[in-house]
Amino acid sequence: MSNPPPSSSPSRVTFAYLTHRNLGTVKKLNSVLFPIKYSDKFYQDIIAPEVEDFCQLIYYNDVPVGNICCRLENKDLYLMTMGVLAPYRSKQLGSQALKRVIKAAASHSKPKIRRVYLHVQISNTDAKRFYERHGFKEVGIKEDYYKKIMPRDAWILERIIESEDKQDQEKPQL
Question: What residues have CB less than 8 Å from 162, skipping those under 6 apart?
Answer without folding.
Answer: 106
